[in-house]
Design brief:
Layout (H helix, E strand, L loop, with lengths): L2 H11 L13 E3 L2 E3 L5 E4 L2 H4 L8 H11 L12 H14 L3 E5 L2 H20 L5 E5 L8 H6 L16 E4 L4 H7 L4 E6 L2 E2 L5 E2 L2 H14 L2 E5 L13 H4 L6 E4 L10 E5 L20 H13 L2 H19 L4 E7 L2 E6 L5 H10 L2 E2 L1 E3 L2 E4 L7 H17 L2
Parallel strand pairs: 3-15, 5-6, 5-7, 7-10, 10-11
Antiparallel strand pairs: 1-2, 2-3, 4-12, 8-9, 11-12, 13-14, 14-17, 16-17
The structure holds pyridoxal-5'-phosphate (PLP).
């Protein structure tokens, strides 16, 4: 099928919930994808921070194919090796005690909310169930995770939301302290707010949040769905800022392109969820876990150091482009704000027309390239952005 035929079929039968860009992709390799007409695209988006090893990484694809040819699904009624091994690796890489596998970021956050409420209920009884989240946060599109999300733009049309969620402004420790009443069981935050516009939280603020939570036995949930699995140059963004959450959620990059999420619980609260408390049919799917095990193997210390180095180069080169007001983020999670009336959406569209795929987050151009991107590919994409920005006004 050509692009026109694919788009027509999609328009006829797919519910139009996505504002798609005008592009079909049919194959890819590393950081380059192709449309049906053979046009090539350099990838600064990685499927919104998912394809950590790029498209069709040979080692990843071989492991996924081998697992699919052996045992694709058994349900959680039985044990399988890839899930058990992945849980071990994730716990070892993060210092957490136990893992629960979900299928997406929203589902991982649902699991975290349930774990926090159960922990509190077991210990303190009824009435200590409130989750405090931050304004401008994003935690997913299910009803509970939308209730946790602190952006009104996502709340239209879907009221009423769940009770038991309170929002406070980020970086305002007094507001948080005031919100931590006797009804609160957890604070939930993203170390860098992704959908909120690539907004990093200050490490001193995060340390204060952690101290407040510890003092009141309130669990700290780090939503690392976007920042985790090497994206910022550490396995977790929390590790870079010395944050020790009680619960960490992962998704996006963990499966390297297959749907997989994880809730990681510290020893202090790992006992909260026991038999029958939480479940999902596809959780720990062996094929997804086999792909994730390759991601884990590749993300060694040298790989993470390279993400840091490439991120620093990327940030410096972006900051030197025309019309750039500032560059936020860390590692390979970057947000570019423009000045002089230049719109990030216009930059994205012009870059796509020149063969470069980027993302948006609020008023910023957001860049989440595959973690395997090379310096030469970063420089090539920067060159496209420079041409676009020189032509734009
Ligand atoms: C921080 C964060 N949490 C949760 C989610 C939801 O993940 P998913 O779309 O896999 O449900 C996202 C998605 O963008 C995210 O960035």
């Amino acid at each position: 099928m050509n692009s026109q035929q694919i788009k027509a079929l999609d328009a006829a039968y797919v519910l139009p919930t996505y504002a798609r860009f005008d592009l079909c992709l049919i194959e890819g390799s590393g950081c380059r994808g192709k449309d049906p007409e053979g046009n090539s695209y350099l990838d600064f988006a990685s499927g919104i921070g998912v394809n950590s090893l790029g498209w069709a990484d040979p080692q990843w694809a071989a492991a996924v194919a081998a697992q699919a040819g052996k045992l694709q699904h058994v349900s959680n009624l039985y044990y399988t090796q890839p899930g058990a091994q992945l849980a071990e690796t994730l716990c070892q890489r993060t210092g957490m005690d136990k893992a629960f596998f979900a299928n997406s970021g929203a589902e991982a956050n649902e699991g975290a909310i349930k774990a926090a409420r159960k922990y509190s209920h077991d210990k303190y009884g009824d009435g200590r169930h409130v989750i405090v989240a931050l304004e401008n946060s994003f935690h997913g599109r299910t009803v509970a995770t939308l209730s946790a999300t602190g952006q009104d733009a996502f709340h239209q049309h879907f009221h009423p939301f769940l009770p038991g969620f309170v929002h406070v402004p980020a970086e305002d420790i007094a507001a948080l302290e005031a919100a931590l009443t006797a009804e609160v069981c957890a604070v939930m935050l993203e170390p860098i707010q992704g959908e909120g516009g690539v907004v990093p939280l200050d490490s001193a603020y995060l340390a204060q949040v952690q101290a407040l939570c510890k003092a009141k036995d309130i669990l700290l949930i780090a939503d690392e769905v976007q920042t985790g699995v090497g994206r910022t140059g550490a396995f977790l963004a929390s590790q870079k800022v010395n944050l020790q959450p009680d619960i960490v959620t992962l998704a996006k990059g963990v499966g390297g392109g297959l749907p997989l999420g994880a809730v990681l619980l510290a020893k202090s609260c790992a006992h909260a969820l026991g038999k029958g408390d939480h479940a999902t049919t596809f959780g720990a799917n062996p094929v997804c876990c086999a792909g994730a095990l390759v991601v884990m193997e590749r993300l060694d210390d040298a790989f993470l150091a390279a993400v840091n180095d490439k991120g620093a180069l990327f940030k410096k080169e972006l900051a030197a482009l025309p019309h750039v007001a500032d560059v936020s983020g860390d590692g390979l999670m970057l947000g570019v704000r423009f000045e002089d009336g230049v719109s990030a959406g216009d930059v994205l569209n012009a870059a796509m027309a020149r063969g470069l795929l980027c993302l948006l987050a609020k008023d910023r151009l957001r860049l989440l390239p595959p973690l395997v991107i090379t310096e030469a590919e970063i420089t090539e994409g920067i060159g496209i952005l420079r041409t676009v920005l020189e032509e734009i006004k």
